[in-house]
Fold this protein.
Amino acid sequence: MTAGILDPTISSISRRGRPGEPAATTQAVAAPQVDSLRDKRVGLLENTKRNAAALLDAVGTVLAETDHVDLVRMTKPEFAMPLAADVVERIIRDCDVVVIGIGDCGSCSAAAVADGIALEQRGVPVAVLCTEAFEVTSRAMAALQGRPDFPVLLMPHPIANLTDGDLTERGQTLASRVRGHFLSPAA
Amino acid sequence: MSPELEGTPAPVGTTVPESRLDPTASRAMAEYLFDRGWSDGLPVLPATQEVVEEFLLHTDRDPDEILAGLPQLDRHATVRDIALHAAMAGCRPEYLPVVLTAWEALSHERAARGGGWQSTSGPAPLVIVNGPIRHRLGVNSTGGVFGPGFRANMTIPRALGLTVRNGFGVVPQQLEQATQGIPGRWFHCVGEDEESSPWAPHSAETGVPAGQDAVSVVLTRTSEFIDNRSFRSAGELLEDIADTLQRRGPWIFRSSSAVLVLNPAHARALDDEGLSKQDVRQWLVEQAGHTEADLAAVGKALSDRPFGPFDPDHFHPAVTDATPASLPIVVAGSSNAAISMVVRVFSTWSGQSFPVH
């Protein structure tokens, strides 16, 4: 006699599926293929988390040297929230590819993945950087957005207490992973 | 029974005669609901359309009004949805207006609209109830006010937690990333013992006139008690409170706000020396805090923040300013011992109470 029991995971206003169940998988919108980063405008979208701007800068500095990219530095002031519409428009206008980070907390990691998926659907190739500690929540958000296979670049946690030297070192490692991510056929 | 709880309605049973209550079926139902993944770890009750309609009779709100949501997950909860969660949490139907007003209050909190429910800090909503509704619903404000033992105090905040879990899909170790969580995260609800307080109620300081039913909700982290039965002056007691208020452990932003829940004996002792609630607040804001050097000693210097730098002897107050939003003071608990509580605030509180409906 469970027929009359209401499912609390389904809102009276929406008929979408339950969380935890696979969301309807949407077709990945193919962001334009990147053959080379040379002379590309690379957006660095930092989310105000401690050392986020510094780490993205370290990545950008390496890419500027090796690939002669132009850096476009941007800040997302509310790290837990979706990107504001005007920021999305600015990114589409000003950037060829975007590096998003750092997802090193419960809400900002999920939000970084959601932002990445939203931008990719608008045709902008993205590299989303999260720490390994938040892999599960990053994947949960990707699944919730219908993109369970969405690639997230994971790195060791934590970031907040890295020294300037650590950040430079991380920047080197990450820059080659970010480059590889953008140039791989799957990106 | 405390005078506070006189007039509490006697518990109503189900409409089934006692002889026909079926313990086997009850256990099976509880297990079924656990298996569906709809529980916070304690048994929940099944909700049907009829039950939800019964709850909705107790509010004048439009059942389809959206009262809560997480835009980043595209999840929203209507009055009707929240009634369902309240029923599953074990609320009586007449508690619904408090649950709904709690969600209205939370929807004004930046931290709750943002990433609070997903946060590593795992904040707990502290529901504070003022006005005669405490007596009508049996919301405890006296002995053992932080629980357990009182259905309204336990089930009203639990309904918020079930909304987060089931309504928003923020499930622990998935989208919910609490590092350790908070003891009793979904069980923080206190009435203010207005009758034993020497001062105007918390609600009157935060937007709803005294004597009217009001709810406010503060997102909090955990609590630390101040046990001081031996103080001989208000100054000694305030020193002791300040010492707890200024702990560096919970200090992660520019300041470190808290709710002070004073038991009536402490409140009266302060009042006896002529201190108003605002005097107490002012004293604590001026005295509680640390120098930049003190914070640097534990790796929490503020100099490298955008609002820095600071000299080593610069004094940082623990609480931003002497307002009810930055340091809410609530009187609750028994007078049987001089024990009060500092409840740490997650981020900042907007400082608003809301009329219950």
